[in-house]
Amino acid sequence: MISQQRLTDEFARLAAINSPPLRESVISRYLEERLQRLGAEVRFDNAAAISGGEVGNLIAYFPGTGKATEPLLFSVHMDTVEPGGQVEPVLRNGVFYSAGDTVLGADDKAGIAELLEALEVAREQGIAHGPIEVVVTIAEEIGLVGAKHLDYGLLKARRGFALDTKGVDQMVLKAPGANRLKIEISGLAAHAGLAPELGISAIQTAALALGRMQLGRIDQETTANIGRIEGGVASNIVPQKVLLEGEARSHDPNKLQAQTEHMLACFEEAADNMAREIGGKRVRPVVNAKVTADFPSMAIAEDAPIVTLAKSAAAAAGHDLKVRLGGGGSDANIFNGHGIEMIILATGMEGVHTHDESVAVTDMVHVTELLVEIIRQA
Ligand SMILES: [Zn+2]
After folding, report:
1. Which residues are catalytic?
2. How far is the CA of 238 from the centre of ligand 1 (A)?
3. How far is the CA of 332 from the centre of ligand 1 (A)?
4. Which of 43, 41, 59, 69 lies closest to 127, judged by CA?
5. In the prediction, which pLDDT does 55 show?
6. Are residues 121 and 266 part of one domain?
7. How far apart are the CA of 193 and the centre of ligand 1, in A?
Protein backbone atom coordinates (compact mmCIF):
# COMPACT_ATOMS: atom_id res chain seq x y z
CA MET A 1 0.00 0.00 0.00
CA ILE A 2 2.63 2.60 0.97
CA SER A 3 5.05 3.11 -1.91
CA GLN A 4 8.57 3.56 -0.56
CA GLN A 5 9.73 4.64 -4.02
CA ARG A 6 7.02 7.27 -4.42
CA LEU A 7 7.75 8.60 -0.92
CA THR A 8 11.50 8.72 -1.63
CA ASP A 9 10.96 10.56 -4.90
CA GLU A 10 8.54 12.98 -3.26
CA PHE A 11 10.97 13.86 -0.49
CA ALA A 12 13.86 14.34 -2.94
CA ARG A 13 11.68 16.65 -5.08
CA LEU A 14 10.57 18.73 -2.09
CA ALA A 15 14.08 18.98 -0.62
CA ALA A 16 15.48 20.27 -3.92
CA ILE A 17 13.06 23.20 -3.95
CA ASN A 18 14.52 26.27 -2.29
CA SER A 19 12.12 27.57 0.37
CA PRO A 20 13.58 30.10 2.81
CA PRO A 21 11.08 31.84 5.12
CA LEU A 22 8.88 34.40 3.32
CA ARG A 23 10.21 33.26 -0.07
CA GLU A 24 8.01 30.22 -0.52
CA SER A 25 6.30 30.98 -3.85
CA VAL A 26 7.94 28.11 -5.79
CA ILE A 27 7.24 25.41 -3.21
CA SER A 28 3.73 26.75 -2.60
CA ARG A 29 2.89 26.43 -6.31
CA TYR A 30 4.25 22.89 -6.33
CA LEU A 31 2.19 21.94 -3.26
CA GLU A 32 -0.94 23.61 -4.58
CA GLU A 33 -0.77 21.56 -7.76
CA ARG A 34 0.18 18.38 -5.88
CA LEU A 35 -2.72 18.66 -3.41
CA GLN A 36 -5.19 19.49 -6.16
CA ARG A 37 -4.17 16.34 -8.02
CA LEU A 38 -4.93 14.43 -4.80
CA GLY A 39 -8.46 15.80 -4.92
CA ALA A 40 -8.25 18.81 -2.61
CA GLU A 41 -9.64 22.27 -3.04
CA VAL A 42 -6.73 24.60 -2.33
CA ARG A 43 -6.66 28.24 -1.29
CA PHE A 44 -4.25 30.71 0.26
CA ASP A 45 -5.01 33.11 3.08
CA ASN A 46 -3.96 36.72 3.43
CA ALA A 47 -0.78 36.12 5.48
CA ALA A 48 1.51 37.25 2.65
CA ALA A 49 0.26 40.83 2.83
CA ILE A 50 0.59 40.96 6.63
CA SER A 51 4.01 39.31 6.85
CA GLY A 52 5.66 40.72 3.74
CA GLY A 53 6.12 37.25 2.29
CA GLU A 54 5.62 35.99 -1.25
CA VAL A 55 2.60 33.80 -0.49
CA GLY A 56 0.11 33.19 2.27
CA ASN A 57 -0.56 30.00 4.19
CA LEU A 58 -1.87 27.17 2.04
CA ILE A 59 -5.11 25.51 3.11
CA ALA A 60 -6.30 22.35 1.38
CA TYR A 61 -9.74 20.82 1.87
CA PHE A 62 -10.41 17.14 1.24
CA PRO A 63 -14.10 16.28 1.38
CA GLY A 64 -15.14 13.30 3.49
CA THR A 65 -15.46 9.99 1.72
CA GLY A 66 -18.39 8.11 3.16
CA LYS A 67 -17.73 8.91 6.81
CA ALA A 68 -19.44 11.76 8.64
CA THR A 69 -16.92 12.44 11.38
CA GLU A 70 -15.80 15.89 12.46
CA PRO A 71 -12.99 17.37 10.35
CA LEU A 72 -9.37 16.45 11.04
CA LEU A 73 -6.48 18.86 10.55
CA PHE A 74 -2.89 18.18 9.52
CA SER A 75 -0.37 20.97 9.79
CA VAL A 76 3.13 21.22 8.31
CA HIS A 77 5.32 24.19 7.33
CA MET A 78 6.71 24.87 3.87
CA ASP A 79 9.75 26.98 4.79
CA THR A 80 13.15 25.67 5.84
CA VAL A 81 15.72 27.24 8.16
CA GLU A 82 18.77 29.07 6.77
CA PRO A 83 21.42 28.38 5.52
CA GLY A 84 19.27 27.43 2.59
CA GLY A 85 20.74 27.98 -0.83
CA GLN A 86 20.38 25.22 -3.36
CA VAL A 87 19.80 22.03 -1.40
CA GLU A 88 21.10 18.88 -3.05
CA PRO A 89 19.57 15.87 -1.29
CA VAL A 90 21.63 12.68 -1.47
CA LEU A 91 20.54 9.21 -0.42
CA ARG A 92 23.24 7.14 1.34
CA ASN A 93 22.33 3.70 2.69
CA GLY A 94 18.69 4.59 2.87
CA VAL A 95 19.27 7.90 4.65
CA PHE A 96 18.84 11.36 3.12
CA TYR A 97 21.54 13.98 3.76
CA SER A 98 22.40 17.30 2.17
CA ALA A 99 25.34 17.13 -0.25
CA GLY A 100 26.42 20.74 0.14
CA ASP A 101 26.80 23.07 3.09
CA THR A 102 23.09 23.67 3.44
CA VAL A 103 20.56 22.09 5.74
CA LEU A 104 18.62 19.20 4.20
CA GLY A 105 15.26 20.72 5.04
CA ALA A 106 13.81 17.45 6.35
CA ASP A 107 12.36 19.94 8.82
CA ASP A 108 9.62 20.03 7.67
CA LYS A 109 9.71 18.37 4.24
CA ALA A 110 9.82 14.87 5.73
CA GLY A 111 6.45 15.66 7.31
CA ILE A 112 5.09 17.05 4.03
CA ALA A 113 6.24 13.99 2.04
CA GLU A 114 4.75 11.59 4.61
CA LEU A 115 1.44 13.42 4.61
CA LEU A 116 1.26 13.43 0.80
CA GLU A 117 2.01 9.70 0.70
CA ALA A 118 -0.61 8.97 3.36
CA LEU A 119 -3.21 10.94 1.36
CA GLU A 120 -2.18 9.03 -1.79
CA VAL A 121 -2.69 5.72 0.01
CA ALA A 122 -6.04 6.80 1.47
CA ARG A 123 -7.20 7.68 -2.04
CA GLU A 124 -5.85 4.53 -3.72
CA GLN A 125 -7.24 2.22 -1.08
CA GLY A 126 -10.56 4.02 -0.97
CA ILE A 127 -10.26 4.44 2.80
CA ALA A 128 -13.46 5.98 4.15
CA HIS A 129 -12.67 9.12 6.09
CA GLY A 130 -14.26 12.35 7.27
CA PRO A 131 -13.31 15.82 5.99
CA ILE A 132 -9.56 16.49 6.11
CA GLU A 133 -8.03 19.95 6.22
CA VAL A 134 -4.34 20.49 5.53
CA VAL A 135 -2.54 23.69 6.51
CA VAL A 136 0.94 24.35 5.14
CA THR A 137 2.21 27.45 6.93
CA ILE A 138 4.82 29.93 5.79
CA ALA A 139 7.78 31.28 7.79
CA GLU A 140 7.55 28.93 10.77
CA GLU A 141 11.29 29.12 11.29
CA ILE A 142 11.43 32.88 11.91
CA GLY A 143 8.92 33.04 14.75
CA LEU A 144 5.83 31.05 13.71
CA VAL A 145 4.88 33.94 11.44
CA GLY A 146 2.46 32.00 9.22
CA ALA A 147 0.61 30.33 12.08
CA LYS A 148 0.34 33.66 13.93
CA HIS A 149 -1.22 35.34 10.88
CA LEU A 150 -3.30 32.38 9.71
CA ASP A 151 -6.94 33.12 8.92
CA TYR A 152 -8.47 30.69 11.43
CA GLY A 153 -11.94 31.45 10.09
CA LEU A 154 -11.02 29.29 7.09
CA LEU A 155 -10.73 26.18 9.27
CA LYS A 156 -13.54 23.99 10.55
CA ALA A 157 -11.37 21.37 12.24
CA ARG A 158 -10.97 21.60 16.01
CA ARG A 159 -8.49 18.72 16.35
CA GLY A 160 -5.39 17.68 14.51
CA PHE A 161 -1.74 16.82 14.19
CA ALA A 162 1.33 18.90 13.43
CA LEU A 163 4.01 16.83 11.70
CA ASP A 164 7.07 18.64 12.94
CA THR A 165 9.38 17.15 15.51
CA LYS A 166 12.45 14.94 15.53
CA GLY A 167 12.66 11.23 16.26
CA VAL A 168 10.14 8.48 15.58
CA ASP A 169 7.28 7.01 17.57
CA GLN A 170 7.01 10.17 19.62
CA MET A 171 4.31 12.71 20.21
CA VAL A 172 4.45 16.01 22.04
CA LEU A 173 1.41 17.02 24.08
CA LYS A 174 2.95 19.80 26.15
CA ALA A 175 5.22 22.66 25.17
CA PRO A 176 6.06 25.84 27.07
CA GLY A 177 4.80 29.30 26.29
CA ALA A 178 7.17 32.25 26.13
CA ASN A 179 7.26 35.99 26.74
CA ARG A 180 9.91 38.17 25.19
CA LEU A 181 11.13 41.16 27.24
CA LYS A 182 12.74 44.37 26.05
CA ILE A 183 13.80 46.75 28.79
CA GLU A 184 15.16 50.24 28.36
CA ILE A 185 16.56 51.96 31.43
CA SER A 186 17.07 55.72 31.22
CA GLY A 187 19.17 57.40 33.88
CA LEU A 188 20.97 60.74 33.74
CA ALA A 189 24.23 61.39 31.92
CA ALA A 190 26.95 63.41 33.69
CA HIS A 191 30.71 63.77 33.66
CA ALA A 192 31.98 60.91 35.74
CA GLY A 193 34.93 62.89 37.16
CA LEU A 194 33.65 66.47 37.41
CA ALA A 195 30.04 65.96 38.46
CA PRO A 196 29.06 62.36 39.08
CA GLU A 197 26.45 63.55 41.60
CA LEU A 198 24.47 65.01 38.71
CA GLY A 199 24.17 61.63 37.05
CA ILE A 200 22.23 58.41 37.59
CA SER A 201 23.87 55.34 36.13
CA ALA A 202 21.62 53.22 33.95
CA ILE A 203 24.24 50.46 34.05
CA GLN A 204 24.25 50.39 37.83
CA THR A 205 20.44 50.31 37.83
CA ALA A 206 20.53 47.33 35.47
CA ALA A 207 23.14 45.62 37.65
CA LEU A 208 21.02 46.10 40.77
CA ALA A 209 18.02 44.65 38.98
CA LEU A 210 19.91 41.63 37.63
CA GLY A 211 21.53 41.02 41.01
CA ARG A 212 18.16 40.32 42.58
CA MET A 213 16.57 38.60 39.58
CA GLN A 214 15.90 34.86 39.49
CA LEU A 215 17.18 33.53 36.17
CA GLY A 216 18.04 30.22 34.58
CA ARG A 217 15.97 27.21 35.57
CA ILE A 218 13.29 28.48 37.90
CA ASP A 219 11.55 25.11 38.34
CA GLN A 220 10.75 21.92 36.43
CA GLU A 221 8.62 23.77 33.89
CA THR A 222 9.88 27.36 33.98
CA THR A 223 13.05 29.04 32.66
CA ALA A 224 14.20 32.65 32.34
CA ASN A 225 17.08 34.47 30.70
CA ILE A 226 18.49 37.92 30.06
CA GLY A 227 20.38 37.32 26.84
CA ARG A 228 21.52 40.74 25.65
CA ILE A 229 22.69 43.93 27.25
CA GLU A 230 23.91 47.09 25.62
CA GLY A 231 24.59 50.54 26.92
CA GLY A 232 26.90 53.34 27.94
CA VAL A 233 29.10 55.62 25.87
CA ALA A 234 32.52 56.09 27.47
CA SER A 235 34.36 55.35 30.69
CA ASN A 236 34.16 58.99 31.81
CA ILE A 237 30.44 59.41 31.30
CA VAL A 238 27.80 58.25 33.77
CA PRO A 239 25.75 56.05 31.43
CA GLN A 240 22.33 57.38 30.55
CA LYS A 241 20.89 54.41 28.70
CA VAL A 242 20.92 50.60 28.88
CA LEU A 243 18.95 48.16 26.76
CA LEU A 244 18.30 44.58 27.86
CA GLU A 245 16.60 41.69 26.09
CA GLY A 246 15.41 38.51 27.71
CA GLU A 247 12.72 35.90 27.86
CA ALA A 248 10.70 33.73 30.21
CA ARG A 249 9.21 30.33 29.37
CA SER A 250 6.88 28.04 31.22
CA HIS A 251 4.52 25.14 30.61
CA ASP A 252 2.22 26.83 33.15
CA PRO A 253 0.68 30.15 32.01
CA ASN A 254 0.40 31.38 35.62
CA LYS A 255 4.06 30.70 36.29
CA LEU A 256 4.98 32.41 33.03
CA GLN A 257 3.12 35.49 34.14
CA ALA A 258 4.58 35.36 37.65
CA GLN A 259 8.14 35.04 36.34
CA THR A 260 7.61 37.89 33.85
CA GLU A 261 6.20 40.11 36.60
CA HIS A 262 9.09 39.20 38.89
CA MET A 263 11.60 40.29 36.25
CA LEU A 264 9.81 43.59 35.66
CA ALA A 265 9.51 44.20 39.41
CA CYS A 266 13.27 43.79 39.81
CA PHE A 267 13.85 46.66 37.37
CA GLU A 268 11.30 48.87 39.12
CA GLU A 269 12.78 48.15 42.57
CA ALA A 270 16.26 48.89 41.24
CA ALA A 271 14.99 52.18 39.85
CA ASP A 272 13.51 53.04 43.27
CA ASN A 273 16.85 52.27 44.90
CA MET A 274 18.72 54.46 42.46
CA ALA A 275 16.41 57.47 42.82
CA ARG A 276 17.98 60.53 44.44
CA GLU A 277 17.76 64.32 44.92
CA ILE A 278 19.49 66.21 42.16
CA GLY A 279 19.33 69.99 42.16
CA GLY A 280 16.50 69.98 44.70
CA LYS A 281 14.39 67.54 42.67
CA ARG A 282 13.84 63.84 43.17
CA VAL A 283 15.02 62.00 40.06
CA ARG A 284 14.32 58.33 39.42
CA PRO A 285 15.61 56.29 36.47
CA VAL A 286 12.86 55.49 34.00
CA VAL A 287 12.19 51.85 33.14
CA ASN A 288 10.51 51.28 29.83
CA ALA A 289 9.47 47.63 29.54
CA LYS A 290 7.97 45.94 26.52
CA VAL A 291 6.64 42.43 26.99
CA THR A 292 5.56 40.48 23.91
CA ALA A 293 3.75 37.16 24.11
CA ASP A 294 5.96 35.12 21.78
CA PHE A 295 3.76 32.02 21.84
CA PRO A 296 1.31 30.49 24.32
CA SER A 297 2.00 27.21 26.09
CA MET A 298 0.19 24.07 24.96
CA ALA A 299 -0.97 21.25 27.19
CA ILE A 300 -3.13 18.45 25.88
CA ALA A 301 -4.49 16.01 28.44
CA GLU A 302 -3.32 12.39 28.15
CA ASP A 303 -6.97 11.31 27.94
CA ALA A 304 -8.01 13.86 25.29
CA PRO A 305 -9.84 12.29 22.30
CA ILE A 306 -7.03 13.31 19.92
CA VAL A 307 -4.50 11.40 22.08
CA THR A 308 -6.78 8.38 22.14
CA LEU A 309 -6.98 8.54 18.34
CA ALA A 310 -3.18 8.71 18.03
CA LYS A 311 -2.70 5.78 20.42
CA SER A 312 -5.33 3.65 18.75
CA ALA A 313 -3.89 4.37 15.28
CA ALA A 314 -0.40 3.52 16.54
CA ALA A 315 -1.65 0.26 18.03
CA ALA A 316 -3.27 -0.67 14.70
CA ALA A 317 0.02 0.07 12.91
CA GLY A 318 1.92 -1.95 15.52
CA HIS A 319 3.85 1.12 16.70
CA ASP A 320 4.89 2.00 20.23
CA LEU A 321 4.00 5.70 20.34
CA LYS A 322 5.46 7.52 23.36
CA VAL A 323 4.87 10.95 24.88
CA ARG A 324 7.80 13.38 24.96
CA LEU A 325 7.89 16.79 26.65
CA GLY A 326 8.38 19.70 24.24
CA GLY A 327 10.94 22.39 25.00
CA GLY A 328 10.32 25.00 22.35
CA GLY A 329 7.55 26.78 20.54
CA SER A 330 6.16 25.59 17.22
CA ASP A 331 3.09 26.20 15.07
CA ALA A 332 1.14 23.78 17.29
CA ASN A 333 1.42 26.25 20.21
CA ILE A 334 -0.41 28.81 18.08
CA PHE A 335 -3.07 26.37 16.81
CA ASN A 336 -3.75 25.19 20.36
CA GLY A 337 -3.98 28.84 21.41
CA HIS A 338 -6.78 29.21 18.83
CA GLY A 339 -8.76 26.36 20.32
CA ILE A 340 -7.60 23.63 17.94
CA GLU A 341 -6.41 20.63 19.92
CA MET A 342 -3.22 19.71 18.10
CA ILE A 343 -0.59 17.10 18.92
CA ILE A 344 2.92 17.26 17.45
CA LEU A 345 4.06 14.02 15.82
CA ALA A 346 7.69 13.00 15.17
CA THR A 347 8.55 12.76 11.47
CA GLY A 348 11.87 10.88 11.62
CA MET A 349 14.00 13.96 11.02
CA GLU A 350 17.31 14.14 12.91
CA GLY A 351 19.99 16.79 13.46
CA VAL A 352 17.61 19.55 12.49
CA HIS A 353 18.96 23.06 11.93
CA THR A 354 22.46 21.68 11.20
CA HIS A 355 24.41 20.60 8.10
CA ASP A 356 24.17 17.02 9.39
CA GLU A 357 20.41 17.00 9.17
CA SER A 358 19.08 13.67 7.93
CA VAL A 359 16.04 11.47 7.59
CA ALA A 360 15.88 7.72 6.94
CA VAL A 361 13.48 6.48 4.27
CA THR A 362 12.34 3.58 6.50
CA ASP A 363 11.44 6.10 9.22
CA MET A 364 9.38 8.10 6.74
CA VAL A 365 7.57 4.91 5.74
CA HIS A 366 7.02 4.15 9.43
CA VAL A 367 5.47 7.57 10.11
CA THR A 368 3.32 7.28 6.97
CA GLU A 369 1.89 4.00 8.32
CA LEU A 370 0.74 5.88 11.40
CA LEU A 371 -0.79 8.69 9.33
CA VAL A 372 -2.75 6.24 7.19
CA GLU A 373 -4.17 4.62 10.34
CA ILE A 374 -5.02 8.05 11.78
CA ILE A 375 -6.93 8.92 8.60
CA ARG A 376 -8.69 5.55 8.71
CA GLN A 377 -9.72 5.85 12.37
CA ALA A 378 -10.39 9.59 12.68
ZN1 LIG B 1 9.91 22.52 11.79
Report:
1. 79, 140
2. 46
3. 10
4. 69
5. 98
6. no
7. 54
